[in-house]
């Protein structure tokens, strides 16, 4: 996870999360804008997901193509009291960790409400596999190639993205070849 501040906007942060290994997001670079409302930390920050292929791709049941990040910690999804924003203990870091741990997972299909009950069934396994194929393709197209082509016009992380793919070049190529073989 990389975070940078905007010198001109104290109410705005930018974040880049690289997809974890073993997931259909592996090695992709996923971009977010983070806005702080006037009453922060009484209210949670507002997260906007930017790696949407110009609004054409929903990367996860929790990451909408319009940029909405659906997470109880942000108040964009219902949850238990312990899962909701608490100004005394919740932080931007806790939101970023939640995104990595709960959204960028190996089987994101099951993040869709009601689909969890199909986990471990032949139908659920097949649907999850097909969903992952779609997400892998979107990761390659938008979170890898799109970022390298700077389609997101992201000056804050341009050097980080280029360095990431330079350092991880061989691992990314192996991962993409494996995805293609599957």
What would you say this structure looks like, in words?
The chain has 182 residues and is an alpha+beta fold. The protein is 34% helix and 14% strand. It contains 4 helices and 4 strands, in the order ββββαααα. It has a 4-stranded antiparallel beta sheet. The model has no long low-confidence stretch (mean pLDDT 94).
Please summarize what this structure is.
This protein has 182 residues and is α+β, with helices and mostly antiparallel strands. It contains four helices and four strands; from the N terminus they run ββββαααα.
Q: Low-confidence parts, pLDDT < 50 over ≥5 residues? A: none
- From N to C, what is the helix and strand string? EEEEHHHH
Please state the CA-atom Rg, rounded to the nearest Å. Answer: 17 Å
User: Which structural category fits the helices and strands?
Assistant: alpha+beta
Average predicted confidence as pLDDT = 94
Seen as an oligomer or otherwise, the chain set is: single chain
**Roughly how much helix do the residues carry, as a percent range?**
25-40%
Distance between termini? 28 Å
Q: How would a crystallographer describe the biggest sheet?
A: 4 strands, antiparallel
Find the count of extended strands (DSSP E, 2+ residues).
Answer: 4
**Morphology call:** globular
Number of helices: 4
User: What fraction of residues sit in β-strands?
Assistant: 5-15%
Strand order of the largest sheet: 1-2-3-4
């Amino acid at each position: 996870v990389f975070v940078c501040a905007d010198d001109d906007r104290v109410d705005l942060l930018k974040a880049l999360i690289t997809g974890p290994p073993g997931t259909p997001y592996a090695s992709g670079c996923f971009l977010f804008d983070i806005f702080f409302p006037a009453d922060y930390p009484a209210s949670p920050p507002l997260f906007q997901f930017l790696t949407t292929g110009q609004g054409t791709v929903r990367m996860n049941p929790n990451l909408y193509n319009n940029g909405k990040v659906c997470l109880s910690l942000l108040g964009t999804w219902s949850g238990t009291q312990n899962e909701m924003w608490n100004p005394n203990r919740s932080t931007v870091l806790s939101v970023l960790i939640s995104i990595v741990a709960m959204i960028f997972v190996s089987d994101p299909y099951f993040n869709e409400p009601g689909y969890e009950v199909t986990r471990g069934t032949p139908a659920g396994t097949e649907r999850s596999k097909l969903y992952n194929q779609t997400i892998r393709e979107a990761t390659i197209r938008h979170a890898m190639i799109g970022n390298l082509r700077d389609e997101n016009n992201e000056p804050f992380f341009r050097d980080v993205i280029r360095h990431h793919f330079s350092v991880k070049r061989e691992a990314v190529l192996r991962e993409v070849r494996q995805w293609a073989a599957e």
